[in-house]
Amino acid sequence: MSHYDLAIIGCGGIGAACLEESHKRALSTIAFDQYCPPHDHGSSHGQTRAIRKAYFERPDYVPLLARAYELWARLNSVSNSRIWDLCGLIHVGAVNGRLIEGVRKSVQIYNLDVEEVSQKELEARFPGFRCRKDDLVLYEREAGMLFVEDIIRLQIARAQASSKIDLCFNTRVENWHLDSPIRIVTSKGTYTAERLIVTAGPWANEMLKTESLSLSVLRKHLYWLKVRNHAYRRENGTPLFVFDNGSGCFYGFPVIDKWGLKVAEHTGGEAIAPDEEKSKLDSIDMARVLAFLRDRLPDVSPQLFHYVACKYTMSPDEDFILDIYSESPSVAYCAGLSGHGYKFAPVLAEILLSLVCEGGTSHNIDFLRAARFL
Predict the structure, then answer these.
(1) Which pTM does this prediction carry?
(2) Which residues have CB under 8 Å from 369's CB, separation 6+?
(3) Mean pLDDT of successive 10-residue segments in the chain (374 residues)?
(4) How far apart are CA 13 and CA 42, in angstroms?
(5) What DSSP element (H or E) covers 98?
(6) Is 8 helix (H, G, I), strand (E, B) or coil?
(7) How far apart are CA 302 and CA 304, in angstroms?
């Protein structure tokens, strides 16, 4: 086909979830990506992503997370392999720091299942972690990890099995026009659609020029390191972890395979152009991560097993931008996920499809709309 009910520009984490949602709605759909997803040029790679309800960023996200959990569970039920693992998460930081204050606020408003753990109990339950004397530890049982690339593969395979969905990968979108119907010009030809969703990740500024979103792109480094014993293995009960050190926010995942323990710094990052390719190891970034590990996870070795770089697409306030295009109700977009968006993928897809198909959504997204920057 050359004309569709829906076109999707960008088929990373959010775009692939939009494919799943369009399949539910039986819409004829074409999805474009300049690479072949899942790929390592954007923001949706690196084996795992965290999912959590006690959202320290702001409590407005919690209702969206409740729906995301329902949708992830539904996708998990139709998969031949597990797409997530709710292995728990520990939040560690100063009592008056952003992390702990934010988690406590979400817990208080939404009565979430999070418990305060003493430092002595932490070291007994989860050997290998160390705290400072002024730290508070909060343990969230229903948090865990999503296997991001496996999920994208599953969603794309389900789309490929549908006679109503076409995938146009290794294809660059050069421009799109608000004709009637919408016209998408690509490196492999021109296509038309009644509705358009733009989930272009680091390339969102380019695809949404008239919106003036002021997005920036940061290069982020992910490391997998050898551990000296079995304290950090998933099968031994090790959860995910987030530490607010005051000087930076560091996070990681338990050992699940031969690559070792995955760890990274959430704060910081190097400003780059969207098309700038992966870098070699950044010695300064790695030194910060290793210093954190020596202080807090002393049984992690500095021996590197695996490394990747990914991209954070940052909004000015680090909250998502989710809205209808200013010039047409037939176009919606999601951008600026700022390094914490993948856990929301299915509910963001549900909202985007509702915006272009019904003109609105039952979810509260007022705090995510672009008008906040006007």
Answers:
(1) 0.97
(2) 321, 322, 323
(3) 94 98 97 97 96 98 98 96 97 97 98 96 93 96 98 96 96 96 97 98 96 95 92 94 95 96 96 86 96 96 95 98 97 98 98 98 98 93
(4) 10
(5) helix 98-110
(6) strand
(7) 6
